[in-house]
Design brief:
heterodimer, A: 328 residues, mainly alpha, ABC transporter involved in vitamin B12 uptake, BtuC, two-stranded antiparallel sheet, 14 helices, globular, B: mainly alpha, 2 domains, two-stranded antiparallel ribbon, 15 helices, 4% strand, membrane (chain B)
């Protein structure tokens, strides 16, 4: 028996498997490890950012600054390495520290100034994008021996596919994210805050510290996503990754997480990312469809999942009411 | 007179912010405040602000109503793209102007009603419900323009964006007119009051006999309608429909304008005038940075900085703090007074 709360996740999984099956029937080549390897690599940065977004949404918040932070990190790293000759590892570390502090600051504003997350992260989105413009408005190429070795590192699948370092980073982030969400005190606190802020506060959940940590985590993962994006494109550009936060939110919702917070799984987000990647891959394979179909299909999927979630909540509410009526 | 002073007190923070920002810009850029007449049309940076503010101001009118119902409408940027694409397609196909305008407005209302169905009937959280059209809308606009930037050459339609009537540019008439009509509709009838009731507590309002569902529908429909007018202005201005960039992120500017205008995101009391001043503040910052001669790289960071300062000053925490200081001062005075009396 599937618990009603997990039904969206199971549905997403089923839809993904069926959709993939249909794609393979039409284009048998889509089953190859090459396609799977590329799908993971192409969506690595989006997946990493989506893990952070999952935690934010589980807590009942939202983070609109993700795309801008990715752009800032990529430009920052590219300029540090390309123009100032800093070692990539140092640049990565600095970028991660900046993006994490940025997240902390937004979390503190949300908690202590009591401004809604939507507005705070919106201002954060402008700020991070503005900071990226300040660093450079050019597309900065990046070449370094160390980065070449990083990009050259991969595990070969049978059949010619490659599991690149970028894909590995994403898979590790997802694995850690799943463990943190379901097996740690921090994870439990996030669910508690998302479920009911007041109850959580009365139960003694450290709401302030947890809120700041959630946005710091999202900032950190956006920074990491930015680094992965820099490696993926071998350059940094301040106009890149506009609207990535929407893709991340879509992946989280399609993965079965409730936007009201408190219910959802990090693993669902992974399936959401794969589903989005699958749509793009299908459009590439088909060749005649234009890329804007991606957006329309994602919109339709969003609609289907939201209505599904609505029905489940409505249904479980009614069952609860019936049970209470019987007891009376 | 009390009505007037009460209005002034409500609008004072926004008016002060606007005056300070305009003052700073005119200090940095001399000639900012001059308005000249050329070819029978008004020119100058201030006029420019009023013209450029048209799309955001129109969106702000609709957004204020939606936010007053405790909702939010993320889709209006995409609706601009859709309506722009529809208008441009019809113009290139040779339809007469009234048909083009009517159909574009109709499409905007349909988009708004779609959001209304999701929010009012299916009871979906507004932020997610409108996210669907925000994501899919640009794809739909691309479908309509078949993936190209559709340009046209029709001077009467282009006049909506760049023409002037009696010396005043037409976009100004459009946004001021729309705001006046909707503002009067809200405040001279009970509609605005009922929308506030719905925003504060939808259930209580429904139980008291307010048709909350109808009000939600009309708020989203008006938002769609305003976006359609804005879409036509944007399209007429560049004489083309750009499905990717028309109205991009304008919904965020509109939300900021409403928040800067002091309407709470939690619904309830709203002021369209204050929101419009908020929109003018945002546009003054944009234009001001341009005429001040800062490198364009600084645009966003200055804008973000000003917005963060305004938001912090308006945040519930700071307001509570001020209220606390004021209250403690008053009680000090009161204590002092009683001491005097006992003596």
């Amino acid at each position: 028996m599937i618990h009603a709360r997990n039904l969206p996740f199971v549905t997403t999984l089923a839809i993904f498997i069926i959709a993939y099956g249909l794609c393979v029937l039409q284009f048998p080549n889509m089953l190859s490890t090459r396609v799977i390897g590329n799908l993971l690599t192409d969506n690595a940065f989006l997946g990493i950012a989506a893990v952070g977004m999952t935690f934010v949404i589980l807590s009942g918040g939202i983070d609109l600054s993700v795309g801008s932070v990715i752009a800032f990190t990529s430009v920052f790293v590219a300029v540090m390495v390309g123009s100032f000759g800093v070692h990539p590892l140092t640049a990565f570390l600095a970028a991660l520290v900046i993006s994490t502090l940025f997240g902390c600051l937004m979390g503190a504003m949300i908690r202590y100034l009591m401004i809604p997350p939507f507005v705070v992260t919106l201002a954060g989105m402008f700020l991070a994008r503005g900071a990226a413009y300040l660093v450079s408005t050019q597309s900065v190429p990046i070449t370094h021996e160390f980065i070449d070795t990083m990009l050259g590192f991969y595990i070969r699948f049978p059949g010619g596919g490659r599991l690149t370092l970028l894909a590995m980073v994403m898979l590790i982030v997802f694995a850690v994210g799943i463990v943190v969400a379901s097996r740690t005190r921090f994870g439990a606190n996030v669910y508690a805050i998302g479920g009911n802020l007041q109850s959580a506060e009365l139960m003694g959940v450290p709401v302030g510290a947890t809120t700041i940590r959630i946005y710091a985590l999202s900032g950190f993962l956006s920074g990491l996503a930015g680094i992965v994006y820099t490696l993926y494109t071998s350059s940094g550009y301040s106009l890149a990754t506009v609207g990535v936060e929407l893709d991340a939110i879509a992946a989280v919702v399609i993965g079965g997480t409730l936007l009201t917070g408190g219910v959802g799984l990090v693993a669902g987000t992974f399936i959401g990312i794969l589903l989005q990647g699958l749509i793009q891959t299908y459009i590439v394979f088909d060749g005649t469809l234009s890329s804007w179909w991606t957006k329309i299909v994602i919109g339709i999927l969003l609609f289907v999942f939201i209505v599904l979630q609505r029905t489940i909540i409505w249904y479980s509410d009614r069952r609860l009411a019936e049970r209470q009526l019987k007891e009376v | 007179m009390t009505w007037f002073t009460r209005r002034l007190r409500r609008l004072a923070p926004q008016l002060a912010a606007l005056a300070i920002i305009l003052g700073i810009i005119s200090l940095i850029a001399p000639g900012f405040l001059t308005i000249s007449v050329q070819n029978g049309r008004l020119y100058g940076s201030l006029i420019d602000i009023l013209v450029r503010a048209a799309p955001v101001a129109l969106l702000t009118v609709g957004m204020t109503l939606v936010i007053a119902t405790r909702g939010i409408d993320l889709s209006i940027g995409a609706v601009i793209a859709i309506c722009g694409a529809v208008a441009a397609t019809l113009i290139t196909d040779g339809y007469p102007l009234p048909v083009v305008i009517a159909v574009s407005l109709g499409v905007g209302i349909v988009c708004g009603l779609w959001n209304g169905i999701l929010v009012a009937v299916l009871d979906i959280q507004p932020i997610i419900a409108t996210l669907i059209l925000m994501v899919a809308g640009r794809g739909i606009a691309q479908l309509i323009t078949e993936g190209v930037i559709l340009t046209f050459n029709d001077d009467t339609f282009a006049a909506l964006g760049s023409g002037a009537l009696a010396g005043i540019p037409i976009p100004i008439y459009l946004w001021v007119g729309t705001a006046l009509i909707i503002g009067l509709l809200m405040r001279r009838t009970a509609l605005g009051f009922l929308i506030e009731a719905t925003g504060i507590n939808r259930r209580a309002a429904s139980l008291a006999g307010v048709r909350a569902r109808f009000l939600l529908f009309s708020a989203y429909a008006i938002s769609g309608l305003c976006a359609a007018i804005a879409g036509m202005i944007v399209t007429a201005d560049i004489r083309g429909a750009d499905a990717n960039n028309a109205g991009l992120w304008l919904e965020l500017d509109a939300i900021l304008a409403v928040v800067v205008g002091g309407t709470s995101l939690n619904g309830g009391r709203f002021s369209i005038t204050a929101s419009l001043i908020g929109a003018l503040i945002i546009q003054s910052i944009n234009t001001g940075i341009l005429v001040s001669g800062f490198p364009p790289e600084f645009n966003l960071i200055i804008k973000a900085g000003i917005i963060i300062v305004v938001l912090t000053l308006q945040s519930p925490a700071i307001i509570t703090l001020f209220g606390f200081i004021k209250a403690s001062r008053r009680s000090d005075k009161l204590n002092h007074g009683t001491k005097e009396a006992t003596r």
